[in-house]
Amino acid sequence: MADQEITLMKGNEAIAHAAIRCGCDGYFGYPITPQSEVLETLAEQKPWETTGMVVLQAESEVSSINMVYGGASSGKKVMTSSSSPGVSLMQEGISYMAGAELPALIVNVMRGGPGLGTIQPSQSDYFQACKGGGHGDYHLIVLAPASVQEMADFVDLAFTLAFRYRNPAMILADGAIGQMMEKVVLPPFKPRRTEEEIIKECPWATTGRIGGRKPNIITSLELRSEEMEIINLRIQAKYREIEAKEVRYEEYMLDDADYAIVAFGSAARIAKKSIEIARSQGIKVGLLRPITLWPFPTEEVKSLAGRVNGILSLEINAGQMVEDIRLAVEGKVPVRHFGRLGGIIPDPDEVVEVLKSSF
Amino acid sequence: MTREEIIEKGQVVYKKPALLNDTPMHYCPGCSHGVVHKLVAEVIEEMGMTDKTVAISPVGCAVFAYKYIDVDWQEAAHGRAPALASAVKRLWPDRLVFTYQGDGDLACIGTAETIHALNRAENITIIFINNAIYGMTGGQMAPTTLLGMKTATCPYGREVSLHGYPLKMTEIAATLDGTCYVTRQSVHSVAAINRAKKAIRKAFEYSMQGKGSNLVEIVSTCNSGWKMSPEKANKWMEENMFEFYHLGDLKDTGAVK
């Protein structure tokens, strides 16, 4: 089957191909290292001539995210991608979309910060992605791919979740996953929805008052506090539902483990190698890999606390997810963090040494 | 007694457009917004585009434009309306897409979005209300505030050494290859209102004909921000604003094939 063909490509390229194949209506972006291949691949593929997908290079990330806001408001399946400094610029628009309850996909291929930082990989935008990022009480649905295959697979998943809950979703990758080449099976082609299907599936969308229906208004503004509180409570109730239903994670060699590493994305791949080394030395270690960073697998981490003697949070940052792990275990077992900064990737051997000295 | 019962058949001499609903407007008496809203509603209705219009409202006095004109609206962040409009028009090419923005929104915080959307020749129309002040926020200096004009943040008058010069965005727009129709109008008299309506109609038609981007500036009053009676504000606008912001078409390439 042609659709099952294995190809070799970068994670960023996989995002672009998956977007075309999953029926994405529009991509709006601005070049920034290390994710520019997303826009470059789309421009090279010319999907406007095949599926009819719109691809537009905007004048800034601020404009990109507001194009996504406009497109999402009209019920279309739209996305953008960027890297850390660009995603910082997008926070205003992301907050508006969360407030207006709009489905969209934002891809962040993280690089080291703060500031202009480095173009090398990092996971230091965990707080920004999972704790709101912009102003106001809100959450994104955050998916953390650990392979090029997951870069391809999570595009459709992110859109599905975004539309299911009318909430922006983020793929939080890093420069390593974006830039490395791996074999990948691209998802099968799915046609873009017709305008009639969009109008039917998204009765809230600003598509024009087709059929003479009442005007639709997309806004995050409500000056009456008592009304604004009701809107906030409704959004919070939605978040509780997402927390209950959409937690995703992977367990690796945890059954007999005395110690656990919790790691996502690139760090989880390093962790698997470290586990192999540690087990060859007689140390029984396993991995819990959160796939959804928000909703965080709180219950799963909590249950780990009853099974292992210590948890190491391996992150390519100064310690961000470790806070969620500590909240989950409620002090029942020691929780340590290890990470490298500034674009340095931890070495599997140094992780083993940290494990040995930590517990 | 209903309005229909009060009005006897054959006695109607004036009627507001049906698209302009009965919600009481929050605009100050004497403000230009109400007139421009009416013109926009009339043009949409007359073009038969009621069910195919997507409008984008700004941050500023017109933030609640969506409450008054019964089409689909998206409420943008401050300055970003042209970015939203660009996406909507590209994703729904047969829709009438326009933004409605003030001077702070369009000529200050949204300068980049405005210039790039216009220059990409997006088939949209930007309605630009220039009253030389931040009205909604309480009368602060705008990019279009005239030299010497007093506002809450230039209480001794705008001066070049402190605040730089007022910005003529419409003149800038006319230099962009992507723009089709660029005009500056006002609504301070019946004749001016008629001209402004024709300009809006032309801009909307060009955008539907795919001729590029269109900018209709309406030099407007903000009598509460200017601290003047409506009548005095109109007169002050004629004597001061029109001196700097000349009325008329700056560019019209739509008639040429």
Describe what you observe in this structure:
The complex is a heterodimer of chains A (359) and B (257). Chain A folds into 2 domains: 6-195, Thiamin diphosphate (ThDP)-binding fold, Pyr/PP domains (Rossmann fold, 3-Layer(aba) Sandwich); 249-358, 3-Layer(aba) Sandwich (Rossmann fold). In chain A, 42% of the residues lie in helices and 19% in strands. Chain A is of the alpha/beta class. A 7-stranded mixed beta sheet of chain A has the order 3-2-4-5-7-6-13, with helices on both faces. The longest helix of chain A has 21 residues, at 225-245. In chain A, helix 1 (11-21) packs across helix 2, helix 1 (11-21) crosses helix 7 and helix 12 (298-305) crosses helix 13 (321-329). Chain A contains 14 helices and 15 strands. In chain A, helix 2 links the parallel strand 2 and strand 3. Chain A has helices spanning 11-21, 37-45, 61-73, 84-89, 91-100, 126-130, 148-165, 175-179, 195-201, 225-245, 265-280, 298-305, 321-329, 348-358; strands at residues 6-10, 26-29, 54-57, 78-82, 104-110, 141-143, 168-174, 181-185, 217-218, 249-252, 259-262, 285-290, 292-294, 310-314, 335-338. Chain B has a single domain, classed as 3-Layer(aba) Sandwich (Rossmann fold). In chain B, strand 5 and strand 6 (140-141) form a beta hairpin. A 7-stranded mixed beta sheet of chain B has the order 2-1-3-4-8-7-9, sandwiched between helices. Chain B is built from 10 helices and 9 strands. The termini of chain B are far apart. Chain B has helices spanning 3-6, 33-46, 81-91, 103-109, 111-119, 160-163, 169-174, 190-208, 223-226, 230-244, and strands spanning 53-57, 72-75, 96-102, 125-130, 133-134, 140-141, 179-186, 213-219, 248-252. By secondary structure, chain B is α/β, with parallel strands linked by helices. The interface between A and B is large, with 41 and 30 residues. Strand 9 (217-218) of chain A pairs parallel with strand 2 of chain B, so a sheet runs across the interface.
